[in-house]
Amino acid sequence: MVRAHSTLSRRDFMKAIGIATAGIGAAAAIQPKFHDLDELLSSGNIYKNPWFVTEVDEPTVEIDWQKMQRFQKGKYNNFASHLSKEEAAAIQAKTKADYQKNMTQNDVPGFTLRDNAMKLAGWGGVRWRMSQATLVKEMVEGWPLIPTPTVLGVPKWTGTPEEASIMLTQLLRYCGGSSVGFAEINETTKKMIWGQMPQAPNPDIVFEEAPKPTYDATAKKVIVPSSSRYAVVHTIRQSLDASARVGYLSDGGAGTAYDNCDITQWRLMCFLQVLGYTTIRQNIQGNGPIVGWGVMSGLGEQGRMQHLITPEWGPMIRQSTMNIVDIPIAPMKPVDFGSRKFCYTCKKCSDVCPSKALQGETEPSWEITQAYDLVKPELFNNPGLKTWYFNHHKCNRYWQESDTYCGMCQATCVFSKDALSTVHEMVKVTLAKTSLLNSFFIAADKSFGYGLRPEDKTEEWWTTPLPVNGIHYENDVFYR
């Protein structure tokens, strides 16, 4: 067992994080407060980040906007596109035989028939919606059964960008969103919109002068008008307890969170349609790099696992769902709370990754994954970031071999904690102020056994009382 021991005095500890003379209570008291309505409206957001989170002009991940271009997402399979037909078929045949055996014998924790039933229940709604022939048109043009102000015979809603941001944050929180951010789609950030919609039949996404977003099935393109130059981004919390149990239970937790992402953005589209505005929704693969839009809208930092790490729940959110809208909002700045810097020292996610898809190098790099065998990294890595580039093929291959979407990296991250106990909150504060204790915190996290549940505890999920959705909403940092 790893044992964590530190000779650091309490005073040195407090000095390191800059609150030696204030004390914990006084430090918490300096969280920003609003004194009147004008201050509230000028903030653009009534759900402020924890006080130790710093807004910054540039993201903590270095970006070369000259090198970055719109990624041609296209239609390809990160598994089959890098293998011979024979090898892909052999892997799939073995996987099918293995999961049939496991579900018949029901003796492998996490891979029983009822575990798989839970997984498929979580994914059911997402997969059904993705199979609908009219989905792309509705994602772009809205739902015809929802009225517009013209149909209602009333003027469209108007307000300041700050008022719109507050309104949309409140709506998304009510509809299931966990945290909400806003960004502008300009000539620079436009590079973060996919070249094609990753939803069959994969129409091109083009920017043209038009009165509203349109799906042209004949030309096979989605038209984004110049008025649609804002991004509304929200996260959905995912069950840590399910994700920490390797197998179908973890997979089901991911599917349920994806389903909630779909439902929440659907409600946002309906809401804006009634107000007189338009929305281009996304599918589970995003309208652009999901993590990137979370970073640009101030919801978190990009970490080693190439997942968004939020200051509230770490990477235990399914994704930062980005909707393209034409309602003017108040953009938010990127944030820095020390999580990316922590990734330089911590390698828990790459150590636990069963496919070795995550890099273990200390320093990030501008170089994408190197080509090997039949693997073509340019199909899944977009240059222009200084980061720990992710080998999507290795990850996807493991999904195929294990019949799950894994998620071990998420559940293992030091920032993935449900409890809002004083010690966890103080760790976050410390990381935001100094990297002096990073190694100590990594050792402590391992020593206390945080991360994946042991195999013999996996099936206890079925006999342990669960909070709603398997998520401790009572620990919501925005509502206490």
TrEMBL record:
<dbReference type="GO" id="GO:0046872">
    <property type="term" value="F:metal ion binding"/>
</dbReference>
<dbReference type="InterPro" id="IPR012832">
    <property type="entry name" value="RDH"/>
</dbReference>
<keyword id="KW-0408">Iron</keyword>
<keyword id="KW-0677">Repeat</keyword>
<keyword id="KW-1003">Cell membrane</keyword>
<dbReference type="GO" id="GO:0005886">
    <property type="term" value="C:plasma membrane"/>
</dbReference>
<dbReference type="Pfam" id="PF13484">
    <property type="entry name" value="Fer4_16"/>
</dbReference>
<dbReference type="InterPro" id="IPR019546">
    <property type="entry name" value="TAT_signal_bac_arc"/>
</dbReference>
<keyword id="KW-0411">Iron-sulfur</keyword>
<dbReference type="InterPro" id="IPR017896">
    <property type="entry name" value="4Fe4S_Fe-S-bd"/>
</dbReference>
<dbReference type="Pfam" id="PF13486">
    <property type="entry name" value="Dehalogenase"/>
</dbReference>
<keyword id="KW-0732">Signal</keyword>
<protein>
    <submittedName>
        <fullName>Reductive dehalogenase</fullName>
    </submittedName>
</protein>
<keyword id="KW-0479">Metal-binding</keyword>
<dbReference type="GO" id="GO:0051539">
    <property type="term" value="F:4 iron, 4 sulfur cluster binding"/>
</dbReference>
<keyword id="KW-0472">Membrane</keyword>
<dbReference type="InterPro" id="IPR006311">
    <property type="entry name" value="TAT_signal"/>
</dbReference>
<dbReference type="InterPro" id="IPR017900">
    <property type="entry name" value="4Fe4S_Fe_S_CS"/>
</dbReference>
<dbReference type="InterPro" id="IPR028894">
    <property type="entry name" value="RDH_dom"/>
</dbReference>
<keyword id="KW-0004">4Fe-4S</keyword>
